[in-house]
Fold each of these.
Amino acid sequence: MPDKSKRSVSPVRSTQPVMWLLALLGRKWTLRVLWELRDQRLSFRALQARCDDISPSVLNRRLKELKTAMIIDHNGLGYGYTQLGSELGAQLLNLNDWAAKWSVEMEALR
Amino acid sequence: MPDKSKRSVSPVRSTQPVMWLLALLGRKWTLRVLWELRDQRLSFRALQARCDDISPSVLNRRLKELKTAMIIDHNGLGYGYTQLGSELGAQLLNLNDWAAKWSVEMEALR
DNA sequence: ATCTTATGCTACTATTTTGGTAGCGTCAAC
DNA sequence: GTTGACGCTACCAAAATAGTAGCATAAGAT
């Protein structure tokens, strides 16, 4: 039986998925890769070029992780979001809006 | 509407803030720290405990970075979001919704 | 006063992750 | 059959993170 203590629904079970996600996104280059794929599919080498010439070994690791997580896939047109992943990608666009506002605030206080 | 064609205005200037943000969030533990602060202020040691006993040296670096970015601050009640940062924190809550859906999909395909 | 407890760290070394370079196998065009 | 693009893999160097110890300060209890 799963955990019965304290909370009626297991707190572990309810927060684990987001923990996995945060760990995945928290690896270097993961967010950047997802950002670069925001509105187009890209080949391995095109991605590499856009990501400040990230080393192929790391890029490949990140792509494997994202494929395993079913956030991206790979076809003849290159790497891109899966249907599921695209909903996550949409949230990254929101980050851009926040960042724009943020930079204005930061500039104002320099 | 913002530019949608070929980046008529400086592409560097328009994407730099989000690049900084992605680099910041892409460091290990940064997202997790922000997640743990989502609905309460926490002391250094309380944060450490919640973040799987992250080493104090790394935690301190992350906190410094986030303070410099004016996303969090520190007062007598511990570390917590600034007004600006809380809008970013709100987006992390959305990540949780996505992650919940994601885990269901992943389970279904195992 | 002093003993305990909590806080917010810093210093140091070990381990893990990432970076950088070279190069291979496949394919398609020329 | 040579050239170029692609998607890698292997290898070692460099950088980031983990892990442990411990210090200084302050508040509260004895």
Amino acid sequence: MRVSAALQRAFFARDSVKVAPELLGCMVTANGVTVRLTEVEAYREDDPASHSFRGETARTAVMFGPPGFLYVYFTYGMHFCANLVCGPDGSGAAVLLRAGEVVAGVEAARERRGAKVPDRDLARGPARLAQAMGWDREDDGRDMVGAVMQGTGAAAVAAGPRTGITKAADTNWRFWIPGDRFVSPYKRHPKAPPASAD
DNA sequence: AAAGTGATCTGCT
DNA sequence: GCAGATCACTTTA
């Protein structure tokens, strides 16, 4: 089952913090691989941890564009990560695709990730997921409406602090399917201030 | 715990 | 323009 392009665009046009948990359990297909999302994080313009926080730049242009497009960025000199752009056109919000279960195209995914990578690790981690999907800088700005399908959904959703960031390290905008094996381990950034104790 | 890697951003000139 | 810091990560210890 799939909804119309207009309805799906409207789905992404909402607040990324609302959209993120609803993406869990959804299927995303690209380049011969389909993943079921198990872990995502929300970012938006009023968020110090977001690339969009300091305004639009050449890199973040897609993030400030219309919703439903893919924002791909390159980091740490070797990794790509992928987001689904959210919010209305002109707002800098997106949902980072952090992990998923490869449910179709395992062979294609393993070809990109490496022959001896176990199924569990094919897309468990944002850069791993992007590599499994065959995404790189050329996919920045690609229209994802039609590539995202509602799956069986998530039986439950957990929320907690986002992984690997130094700013806004206690904002609970990471969402995952509790108990799912295809969720990456939480790692606080070594330079982030100690966790708040509430 | 820290290296590896390079684009990007900031804050100077 | 240019230097220095930073970085939504992965891998190997």
